[in-house]
Amino acid sequence: MSRSAELTPTVENYLKHLFHQQQQSPDGWLPTGRLAACVGVTPGTATTMVKTLAEAGLVDYEPRGGVRLTSAGERHALGVIRRHRLIELFLVRELDLDWSEVHDEAERLEHALSDKVLERIDRLLGYPQFDPHGDPIPRAGGHVPTTEYQSLAECALHRAFVVARVTAQDAVFLQMIQRLHLVPGTRVVVEARDTAAQTVTVRPRSRPALNLGLPAAAKILVTAPG
Amino acid sequence: MSRSAELTPTVENYLKHLFHQQQQSPDGWLPTGRLAACVGVTPGTATTMVKTLAEAGLVDYEPRGGVRLTSAGERHALGVIRRHRLIELFLVRELDLDWSEVHDEAERLEHALSDKVLERIDRLLGYPQFDPHGDPIPRAGGHVPTTEYQSLAECALHRAFVVARVTAQDAVFLQMIQRLHLVPGTRVVVEARDTAAQTVTVRPRSRPALNLGLPAAAKILVTAPG
DNA sequence: GTAAAAATTTTGAGTATTCAAAATTGTATG
DNA sequence: CATACAATTTTGAATACTCAAAATTTTTAC
Asked: Is the pLDDT of residue B190 over 80?
């Protein structure tokens, strides 16, 4: 009736962060300190938890070397991320919540939803592939729809693109994106890029051009239109 | 952004059960053993928790005398019950889950929903007054729509009534109600009542008559039609 | 009115999670 | 290579919750 293995919300949370962080550092091994920082606990706490996770077969752990999800751990992490992203989309599409505020809501709900309810939500939404931020929603089996994106920090100049994904979760940044009309789906052209000044000049379709800092531009991913 | 006082799910759960039980025993004082039984913990655990709740001002506690919700405790309890019942209705109406299975689902979700999401669900459902079992949904302010009901164990014979409410949560019982066509909204007539044999003969509108035991009949509440 | 039964509380202990601060290890530097 | 610095791990302790079993109180029964 509910989830397969029944991990605690805390454990699910560690696994989720672990997965996200591992995508960044592609050698796969994550220092425990980094994990601690993004879960929001002290380093010692993370060490303790990592040892627990290792005993449960969810991660590989090399003392002073780092942590890495096992395939079992990754499977669970993808389950949590699937729940999180489906909930986000549900909150935006069905309950009319704002794009920028659903992350925190989903954070709590992702640990309380049974497989059955999740399946119904999935069906109601028409088995969507992407959440409101453009992040891919893993399938129940664990498959993640992948697409190659470029960011506004690196794509070609004077070419039409479509914003596909915004890789940030904090409400302030997302509200800015909204105010600037750069939400997923918007057509944009990069008019200039100044690597010295670290700025990018972007023009959303039928709107005035605007300037973004390079780090911000790197969080906005685009694809070719059509 | 979320709930007012932030009680733990465990505490919310105790308060909810306390409220339900208090409705039964109207002197208001509930023995801790009874509370323990319905929360599903050992008596000692309930005693410990009750002392914690008393310190937090949520209950009055007389050692060896019993427990009673304070008005603060009742306010919180009604909040939990409101969430629970709105979720149940939402799951049935919007996600097409079965009447008989939503209780357990709501049990988990009632502790994870923010006020904001709850308000949206309330709006989506059209500010309903009753959940799928006919139980009243407390308003955000704490007001509970009350109606006087009679049960099939005590109502007049040969008079038309409408099933308004089924005061049970276990799936097996509810599935039986469904199979027997006695879900809320159904018109029924009690054709006979045998207090010695402890049975009631009920005829749902345009269906053959059927027999119920008295305790089962007492859980099915009816009102005058119209 | 005392003994047995029932309910309740207390005690001691365990799990899951966390922190602060001390100890350890590894790395980089001169 | 020794030393200083940073990261990590260990240690000791706290909170929230739970149980089993012992101790206590109340009720019931004779």
From this structure: yes
